[in-house]
Amino acid sequence: MTQERPAVVLLSGGLDSATVAAIAREQGFHVHALTFRYGQRHQGEIEASKKVAASLGLSDHRILDIDLRAFGGSALTDDIEVPKDRSADEMNDGIPVTYVPARNTIFLSFALGFAEVLGSNDIFIGVNALDYSGYPDCRPEFIAAFEKMANLATKAGVEGEAPLTLHTPLIDLTKAQIIARGKELNVDYSLTLSCYDPGAGNSPCGACDACTLRTKGFSEAELEDPALSI
Question: 5-228: what fold?
Fold first, then answer.
């Protein structure tokens, strides 16, 4: 029996990362999921990540504590109001205050260290360049640069037989296409949480950028969002 290749998958508990974890599993990888409690204002996404990992049958799901709130600088880690009811033009105009400085760089650096210990050449992240809402660390240029750096900065990159690959299977997909792909893989989207500012019981606000993009995606996929019907 062929042993599954290990892969580190960043799992936030949101729609995109749940889809990526399912894709990695479908591709035959043994998924080692990595979630961060990074000082975000709400902990609902941590609970969502646990539920998603369980639903996908992931045997290794680790939650790391880092404190980006010590720096602040984002509506997700500081006392800054989360923007609501923004139009598509507004969302595409500049970098929003929900951007957490260097977050993906930090997360990927942890994932890189974990991958080296596992003897893995593969890291998966659910970045998206179409419905990315202005985040600079979701662009293909960033991903290519980080992958190049990873292969220069690590023992595995210098001495290993195979280079590290940073997988971004969603990067060229619309939110509707992501949802359709996830449905093919039986991802339970009722377990996911995308909202930047959830209310009581982790109910989505329905008005932040993440909720707006999610609603648009389900509408264009001609599906109902199961997270709104539970």
Answer: Rossmann fold (3.40.50)
